[in-house]
Amino acid sequence: MTANGSSNPSMTRRRALMGLTGAAIAGLTRQNRARAATTPDIVAPLGLGDDQGPEIILKIAGDDGAAKTIIPDIAKYYLLYRGANGIVVSEADKPWTTQVTGTMLNGQQVAILIRASSSADGFTQLAGGNADIGLTTRMARPNEVPGFDALTPAAAARNIRTIALNAYELIVNKATGIESLSVDDCLDLFSGKVRDWSVLGGTPGLIRRYIRPIDQGTDSLLAASLTNNSRLAGARVVQSYAEMWKSVAEDPQSIGYIAANMRYHDPKRWRGAVVPVKFKLGTRLTALPDEYGIATNDYPLVLPIILYRVPGEPNPEVDSFFAQAESVQADVIELQSGFIAVTPQLLVPPHFDDGEPSRYAQLTRNALRVSTTVRFDPRSVKVDSRTKHLLDALGNYLRRLDIPPEQLRHLVFCEEAGTPERNAEISAGLGDVFARELRARNVRIGHVVPFGAEQALASSNSPLGQWLNRRVETWVIP
Length: 478
Fold this sequence. Notes:
The protein has three domains: 16-156 and 306-336, Periplasmic binding protein-like II (D-Maltodextrin-Binding Protein, domain 2, 3-Layer(aba) Sandwich); 166-294, D-Maltodextrin-Binding Protein, domain 2; 356-476, CATH 3.30.1330.60. The chain is built from 16 helices and 19 strands. The protein has helices at residues 9-36, 64-67, 70-81, 119-127, 153-157, 183-191, 221-224, 241-250, 261-265, 291-295, 316-325, 328-336, 358-364, 385-401, 420-440, 463-469, and strands at residues 55-63, 85-91, 98-103, 109-117, 133-136, 160-173, 180-181, 208-211, 236-237, 254-259, 274-276, 278-281, 284-287, 302-308, 346-347, 368-375, 408-412, 447-450, 471-476. Helix 7 (221-224) links the parallel strand 8 (208-211) and strand 9 (236-237).
């Protein structure tokens, strides 16, 4: 990748092939483990439905981006895996959006109902017993899902599945003169603190912000600017990404956002008045909404696609659907829809010609980065359910790779804490926790290298910036 963020086509195809291969291998491994488990992958059908329609075996509610794209196809494969035929995807009666129906070999009709709404609604429907699976793009808040607060990280992880990654991609009208922004710029812009493009180095004029009301409940950079999830004063509200794109294309002073997977389906869109926004820190580009930026979570607007269930409520159908959502077929569905595989993989890093710190450049030259990046919450070394899941995934992947320890580098970074000495102390402490956790997973660790607050992805002025910077990158050295 060049300094202006353009992609090398052959490298893009190479990364895509590597990602698909890695997803297939990981999916096969997961399927083999699932078949060996006590609970079978395929459960016996529930009872026959009544004369009014098929038996509803699962109800899934939540994030509209996934509910309208990958979840119906995963549900189709789930029914096919169950032995159904004549599978049909159709519009469902309200409040549901989609119904996936099939006929079992004994003539029984079964169906899965899907409700495309929001992460907040997914948690509400799950907690209220109106859905079996909550579909979200964020972790549950305290008391949002019954029973989660009392669970250990290991127990909580058994009731959550992160199945894919997507992202918000910021877009502006070309007339604004804006090509890149910092995380702090975006926070100030969407909060209304900055109101004129000239303050950010653009063409003078009032900033006009476009948002979707359904996105205000997410834990993203956008939502961080929307205090108490209230509607941003002065923002123009649109109901869909298509309407967002059209509005930004027609408004020369506008900024909005779309789902990053839209680029996959229609790359020709970028030839018009709409341009994507790159992220920077100072003059250095830090992350793009491409496979590398999203898979590593270096891009600040990543949206994990997460399945939640209520703990302590056994449901074989949910068990089986979770297994199907992590299968090879599901990985292929996600990649074909423009989502990024959540399974660990080796990535070729982009190369920004902007004077990277010499120590970082030297240690990562000609190396491949493992996509799984372990992050810790700001000012914390606690291994919560999210960090545990990342450590588990990384540990399993490194054991399969069986790389000699001398070829592994784990680079540990932290937020800016005031002095280089304090930064070095914090990153060394995070490295100790990281190494201890990998040893507990029987991983040959390699070299752990504290980097302090170097190679920051954002300023440390916000919780989001601190979280982006407080990370451990794993590299395979040739």
